[in-house]
Amino acid sequence: MMHAMRTTTRLTAAARLALTLGLSLPATLLAQGADQEDVWFRGGPEAARHALIITGAAASDDIRARFSQWSNSLHDVLARDYGYSADTITLLLDDGTTAGANPRVDGSSRREDIESAVNRLQQTLQAADQLTVFMIGHGSSTDAAAKFNIVGPDITGAEFATLLAAFRQQDLVVINTTSGSFEFSAALAAPGRVILSATRTRAERYDPMFARYLIEALDARAGDRDKNGRVSVLEAWTFASQSVQGWYSEQGRLPTERSVIDDNGDGNFSLEPSASAGDGSLAEIAYFDNHSAGPQKSSPEARTLLAEMQELERAVFLLRGQKANYLEEDYWTRMETLLIDLARKTGRYNELP
């Protein structure tokens, strides 16, 4: 299978850097190779980013207006701040009736439009491209099935997972901001995917605020905690999750939603992702945009340095997540080597016109 080829033919980023720098890695880590998160979300200059926004049916006119506002805002933020174009954003909004008046809208959230959009993306995306799926609306979960409420017959988590199975060679992020989203999201978990759920139990069935604060995290890169000029999925999740809890506190209400994340493919979502929890490593290196040198840094040397800087930064994150596998002194020696190399390349990059 193509997916198997991808996950068994690459050394990890940390391994390749260590070999380049003349360092050694434990044999166990070298043997893991691309079975680990290192093979995913490389985000090279050639990798494209695509977004699919699916906004389902609303229970009332007021809710429909809120969902529509969130969807339009998300579309605009991705286009303005993250370099997406009309060709790389697909917005499926409610029944699609506003498509004529709203140039952002590409169709409805009916099953046939969802399937058509997914099939089109399958034909468009190249290997190592990234697809981020945003789900806005209502969800439900019963013993029978977890569903996303769309126009017409609802779609289940298992059915949506079947649609997404086509993206074996691409990096995939799914952000489910709906009520009762947990079990639907759990059905999508797989190696190489980052899955966010606005809720963590079936009982959390009230309309979440998570979508609002996720968009705030992306808007003007407000969620960029490490100030590297980019927003990772983990940073956006952290910003939104903390903001949601702050909102409930300000309202003097008990929280009816707690967002969770899974990025190791086991379907066991983490409320507090960390290396010990097993989740968070992929989300930390999955970004919403490509790192671009921009027109002011368009020389071949700048592009080469930027790619090397990105690889080093990525290796720092991955090494940090593997700290438990090293002796303390060995870990800090490796980290120092990476950080010094990153600082040197960054200094040279900043010197370029």
Describe the structure.
The protein has twelve helices and ten strands. The protein is an alpha/beta fold. It has two domains: 49-285, Rossmann fold (3-Layer(aba) Sandwich); 293-353. The strands form two sheets. A seven-stranded mixed beta sheet has the order 3-2-1-4-8-9-10, with helices on both faces. A three-stranded antiparallel beta sheet has the order 5-6-7. α4 runs parallel beside α8 (210-218) and α11 (300-321) packs antiparallel against α12 (328-351).
Q: Look at the helices and sheets and give the structural class.
A: alpha/beta
Distance between the termini: 45 Å
Helical segment count: 12
Fraction in helix: 40-55%
- Our estimate of the beta-strand percent is 5-15%
Question: If you compute it from the alpha carbons, what radius of gyration comes out, rounded to the nearest whole angstrom?
Answer: 20 Å
Physical arrangement of strands within the biggest beta sheet: 3-2-1-4-8-9-10
State the CATH topology of the largest domain. Answer: Rossmann fold
- CATH class identity of the largest domain: Alpha Beta
Main sheet summary: 7 strands, mixed
Architecture of the largest domain in CATH?
Answer: 3-Layer(aba) Sandwich
Uncertain regions spanning at least 5 consecutive residues: 1-36
* Quaternary structure classification: single chain
Give the number of DSSP strands: 10
* Spatial shape: globular
Order of helices and strands: HHHEHEEHEEEEHEHEHHEHHH
Overall pLDDT score: 86
